[in-house]
Amino acid sequence: MEMSFLFLLFAIAPIFFSALVVYTHQRTHGTLDITTASVAYDREQYGDLLDWNEYALDIEGKPTMIFSGEFHYWRVPDRERWETILKQYKTMGMNAIRIYFHWGYHSPAEGVYHFDGNRDIDYLLNLCEELGLFVLAAPGPYICAEVQAGGYPSWLIAKRELRIRHAEYMLWRVYDDEFAQYEIQWLNHILPIIAKHQITLNNNNNNNNNKKGCVLGLQIDNELFETMAVVLPIGLRDQMRVLAKAARDAGITVPLFSNDGFEESSWVPRDATTKKKEKAFGLDLYGFDKYVVFAPTSAPTSWFLDTGNSSASWKDWNPKQMEGSLDRLEKTVRAFGGGAAKSPMFIPELQGGWFNHYQLEHTYDMIYEFYGDQYTKLVVDSCLAQGVSILSLYMTYGGTNWGTIGDPDVYTSYDYSACIREYGYLSMRGRNLRQTILFSRSFDPYFTQTDRQYKKSIKSTARKVINTQRVSANSDQKVLFTFLRNFNRDRLEIFDLNIDHPEGNFTMNCYLPYKTSFTAVGNYRAANGLHLLQASIPIHLRMTNPETNEEIWIVEPNQLGGLAFEHREMEVSGNMQEDALRRQGPADILKFDQTEGWTKLSTATGNLYIIGLTKSQISTLYANFESDYWNEGKGRMPSFIAWGADEMYYNPRTKQMDINYRRSDTGIYVISFDRPSDNRFTAVSRGVYNMPYTYSMDLQHAHQKLPLPVQINLRDWEVRPVQLQSLPWHPLKRLSNDSAPTFEALDYHYTSGHALYRTTFQTPSGNVKLSLNMRNRATVLVNGQIIGGHTTYSRQLFSPGAKIGPDPWFLGSHTYDLTPYLLRDDNEAALNEVVVLVDSFGLCRQAFIMNDVRNPRGIIKAKLKGLDQEPEWEITGVDVRELDNQYNSCGFPDERMNNGRWESMGSRIEQDRTLYRLSINAGSGVQWTRFRFDGLPKSRSSDFNVPLRLHMEGPFTTYLFLNDALIARYYGNGDSPQHDFYIPEGLVQQRNNVVRMLIYTWEDTTGEISISGWPVRFDSGNLITGETDVASVTGSAAEGLNEYLTWKETVRV
Fold this sequence. Notes:
Layout (H helix, E strand, L loop, with lengths): L1 H25 L16 H4 L3 E3 L4 E3 L2 E3 L1 E6 L8 H12 L4 E5 L2 H4 L14 H11 L2 E5 L15 H4 L9 E3 L2 E2 L3 H19 L19 E5 L7 E2 L3 E2 L3 H13 L6 E2 L17 H5 L39 H8 L2 H6 L4 H4 L2 E7 L12 H8 L3 H10 L3 E7 L33 H15 L7 E3 L5 E3 L5 E7 L7 E6 L8 E6 L6 E6 L5 E9 L5 E5 L3 E7 L4 E6 L6 E5 L4 E4 L7 E3 L2 E5 L5 E7 L2 E7 L2 H4 L3 E5 L9 E8 L3 E5 L4 E6 L5 E5 L10 E2 L10 E5 L16 E7 L8 E2 L22 E9 L6 E7 L1 E6 L2 E7 L22 E4 L13 E9 L18 E8 L8 E3 L26 E2 L4 E4 L2 E6 L6 E7 L10 E2 L2 E6 L2 E7 L2 E7 L8 E4 L9 E9 L3 E8 L13 H7 L13 E7 L1
Helix pairs in contact: 3-5, 7-8, 14-15
């Protein structure tokens, strides 16, 4: 009988689980009558403006690669810098940006929307059009991005009847029409502004001044998996349907696209050839995100196991991680079929660094070192090897989590160890990536559309150095691109390439350091008729002049690699090459014995100039690409080439080039078939670059007059205590008649910074202890004196204070003995006041499959033990709905009270040159401190740029406002690793800047504060700190002992 029951159980189990799988899938299919076809891009109407095939986007009929960088305008509090940063993207060779539009940043209260000032996205999109940058628009409504509530406004989260992002539980969504209507409300505010800038409006008769739009596509939601691991249904089809229809109803006519969390075939459009496919739902373009290597303290293992807070045990990242993540992309995505097989390979978010967490010991500088200078170039090169033609780097410039905009995953800095560091420095990682972008764009159209060549025509004597090969499609030449990537396990750097050629094989040497990459060009015919069979050195750029059959290449020569040309008559001259070509089979191999200079290869029909630059010169390489779209069909790819300065940017409308140069930069070179119009440029007649079309200009170092290092005096120090008794306290409220009073900060809309709690009781005869459970950071005061504090925060799921995912709210209590601090009165019972400050690290962001946006904030439970009865609690804070910006608050109601009792700090401040020390005592409770400073003197506002750094030391806590903008949250006890804060230039006035600091401490201490420049290493941009760092800096990097400074110049080209 028992055996029969077991057999029956085993027989029924598969049926039960099969039925369960079918049910869980069917329930996500939805009922809304919105089909893929009903919201599809109208190719018949707009196809001449924007179309695509499996290779690339066609923009006004021209196949175009999209090299985009993520840009978060809401992480740049000074709008004046938007243009500066976007010009840096152009300097890197990028032709597009992706923008997350942040609902909560624009809507502090229900029905209130701001699109002015630093939230003027119409201005931002106009700016993109002026700069010639395409835009991939991502208005959410959910954006993730390590921001509070994933970008949803807190007033929406406070509506507890709503299922946020339709989440009923973790892993389980149920469609919520009321929530969807709020999402549509947001889209109806934001999309009409975006719609005015669509590329599809270019043929609209109402389009003023023939203005060209910049928006190429609109992303719907963010990383909304349709399924995970193929079988686990996550996303609701109605969830995506309603947003897509809302976009079309609001006037969006460009293609809609998705960003699958990783390649999982979510929302792939399919032809409705069967009933099943008819019920499916997809968007116009299939996109997927790729994050390849996690920083060790953020790796998936750290979500479940405590891997420690130190970077001391970190090991180098393993190439197998990149190979496993990227080297099957094309095969995997094309196998999805439908639109995924017919549209370009598209990565809306491609890893450009990584973020950092609270309570870790390392900063972003260590994360930069972990990945290294070559990491982003390796990732992008590996994606291009898979045929990717649309990619957006997340992040390119990270910016600042100013105010409280960040979620619990991140602190004030969002540097991201990105290509452009938070204070504006273009790092070597960005400069190396630029090499790939310049190469790719200069070899248009051949590189834009390619097919994979599965039978490799090149073999190497070293393993793991040849990634893939691709061949040009739909072009007049079948150019061969060999993607070299050195992941050799023995770390060999020198090897041979054996080239199979129909007319005979030949061998070339190659030098490629470990964990570096470049794309080797083969089977390419230059403008003068020379046929390049194969290159084994990088060709970074090419520039052609069809009128004279002349061509210029920029190469990075070494004494091993070379260029193999098909044997034919040519004249060789210059100062860089070996005396004679080496004949081998069908090839004449040109090799070089100098690392800089030039070589000229002349034929009867024209000249090929090969210019060699050193690695250092290549790091400053710039090329101006004038695309057909932005230049009335008269594109030049590129129109000129330059090197020698920190950064350059050319404006084709004004014909002027902005030059930012460092103290080590002495002059710039320009290669152009047309002579520059600025008479400061002279034709080069001497030196290693004495060849035609080369011009140079010396850089004037007037900036040496600026005294360095930068010294900022802080003056007029004043202090004002927070009068806790005078704050607007009110009793805890009940959410319903039969519910207990709620401590939850969200229910009061106290979602920025602190929520404050107070109770009073008379001194009893025995001991009194406070049992306190809260999130995230508590400070306890008894009778105005701070007696201690604690933090509840974890990087692990299912742990108290989890930064992401489930938080067991019933765990995490901490007990304080209040007895020693109680008032005693012999005649009558004394009245004691207990105040608890609870500092929130922000609302969780509801990422992926999580349902954590309403994880508790503020006090969860507070119990006073030793009293006859539990006293009632009061609460106060800042209702963010009453603010213009819901994130620009520390949570103290008196934060903008300027007419209080300010007193001079006098001798309480010690000055050591530009370092200021102040005593901070727990017995003083919570105080406001303020001081003033003047900005750097400038003869002209555009003369130079010296970013400023605010440095703090000591185990105290402060929220710091600069001219009313909250720019720093400092936790000196170790809750945050950040001690150096970037001061956004646009917030700094020439005179009389006011800094206000909310300060308190858990122990008596001395705080140190200074404002100076950024002494950095000129490869990584990492801050130089301590004697050990200083001693290790040699050579040109030694100028980092003074602060990073760039002087500015403008020339006509």
